[in-house]
Amino acid sequence: MDALSLDKVEFIISIAREVGESSLAIIGDELADNNEPLQYSELSLAEQADNSSSENFDGDSAYLELKSVIDGMNEEERNELVALMWLGRGTYSRSEWKNAVIDARDASNNHTVDYMVRTPLLPDYLTEGLAMISED
Domain range for residue 53? Predict the structure, then answer.
């Protein structure tokens, strides 16, 4: 990683974990309020998460902080963050790091922040990506 610091990635991981915990609490509350939990499947919960908007998180300070941190990054940092996430989820191998960064640059648009923030396993993907980058 040339533009992105390890400290910044670790900070993003910690905030993303907080966001994930609050998301699980929201889903748990929704399930608890429903008398028919059998209608929920892993697929329907995933679809519900995919179809949720950032408006659902407007009161979540961790979400707003995560969005602010990523939004405050320069373009190179965001591209490397996206590439690191892709590396961690297995889209690219360690040897394809430069290609991942190039592809992240090519895919970059005004929705990068929302894309990153709405990725449910973001902290896990970034942690795995860091582990892969730091391997010797």
Answer: 6-134
DSSP E strands, 1-136: none
Residue 115 domain flag = yes
Domain count, the chain: 1
Within a domain: 104: yes
User: How wide is the angle at C-alpha 12 spanned by C-alphas 6 and 15, nearest 5°?
Assistant: 145
CA angle centred on 47, ends 43 and 51, rounded to 5°: 175
Q: Is residue 1 part of a domain?
A: no
pLDDT string in tens for the chain (136-residue length): 899 999 999 999 999 998 877 655 444 444 555 545 444 444 544 555 555 544 455 567 888 999 999 999 999 999 999 999 999 999 999 999 999 999 999 999 888 888 988 888 999 999 999 999 987 5
Exposed e or buried b per residue across 28-60, where buried means at least 16 C-beta atoms within 10 angstroms of its C-beta: eeeeeeeeeeeeeeeeeeeeeeeeeeeeebeeb
What is the C-alpha separation between 18 and 63, in angstroms, rounded? 8
Is residue 85 in some structural domain?
Answer: yes
